[in-house]
Amino acid sequence: xxxxxxxxxxxxxxxxxxxxxxxxxxxxxxxxxxxxxxxxxxxxxxxxxxxxxxxxxxxxxxx
Length: 63
Prior knowledge:
This protein is mainly alpha-helical and 63 residues long. The chain is 32% helix and 0% strand. The radius of gyration is 33 Å and the shape is elongated.
Protein backbone atom coordinates (compact mmCIF):
# COMPACT_ATOMS: atom_id res chain seq x y z
CA UNK A 1 0.00 0.00 0.00
CA UNK A 2 2.88 2.34 0.81
CA UNK A 3 4.40 1.83 -2.64
CA UNK A 4 1.11 2.68 -4.34
CA UNK A 5 0.76 5.91 -2.36
CA UNK A 6 4.33 6.94 -3.23
CA UNK A 7 3.81 6.11 -6.91
CA UNK A 8 0.53 8.06 -7.05
CA UNK A 9 2.12 11.04 -5.28
CA UNK A 10 5.10 11.07 -7.64
CA UNK A 11 2.83 10.79 -10.67
CA UNK A 12 0.63 13.62 -9.39
CA UNK A 13 3.69 15.81 -8.77
CA UNK A 14 5.02 15.11 -12.26
CA UNK A 15 1.67 15.86 -13.90
CA UNK A 16 1.32 19.07 -11.88
CA UNK A 17 4.78 20.28 -12.87
CA UNK A 18 4.20 19.41 -16.53
CA UNK A 19 0.86 21.21 -16.65
CA UNK A 20 2.34 24.29 -14.95
CA UNK A 21 5.10 24.39 -17.55
CA UNK A 22 2.52 24.46 -20.35
CA UNK A 23 0.64 27.48 -19.02
CA UNK A 24 1.04 30.59 -21.19
CA UNK A 25 2.99 33.49 -19.75
CA UNK A 26 2.63 37.13 -20.68
CA UNK A 27 5.67 38.39 -22.51
CA UNK A 28 6.92 41.90 -21.76
CA UNK A 29 6.18 44.44 -24.47
CA UNK A 30 9.11 46.73 -25.14
CA UNK A 31 8.58 49.99 -27.02
CA UNK A 32 10.24 49.92 -30.44
CA UNK A 33 13.64 51.56 -30.42
CA UNK A 34 13.89 54.63 -32.58
CA UNK A 35 16.44 54.37 -35.36
CA UNK A 36 19.37 56.75 -35.10
CA UNK A 37 19.03 59.55 -37.63
CA UNK A 38 22.02 60.49 -39.74
CA UNK A 39 24.22 57.56 -38.70
CA UNK A 40 23.92 55.36 -41.80
CA UNK A 41 27.38 54.75 -43.35
CA UNK A 42 26.34 55.56 -46.91
CA UNK A 43 29.28 55.66 -49.30
CA UNK A 44 31.77 54.19 -46.83
CA UNK A 45 32.00 50.71 -48.31
CA UNK A 46 34.40 49.82 -51.15
CA UNK A 47 31.56 48.45 -53.33
CA UNK A 48 31.49 50.29 -56.63
CA UNK A 49 34.64 52.30 -55.95
CA UNK A 50 36.70 50.76 -58.78
CA UNK A 51 37.16 52.90 -61.89
CA UNK A 52 34.42 52.31 -64.45
CA UNK A 53 35.51 49.97 -67.22
CA UNK A 54 38.53 48.60 -65.39
CA UNK A 55 38.43 45.45 -63.33
CA UNK A 56 40.61 45.24 -60.26
CA UNK A 57 43.97 43.61 -60.90
CA UNK A 58 44.63 39.97 -60.05
CA UNK A 59 45.79 39.12 -56.56
CA UNK A 60 49.37 37.89 -56.84
CA UNK A 61 51.23 36.65 -53.80
CA UNK A 62 54.96 37.26 -53.60
CA UNK A 63 57.35 34.89 -51.85
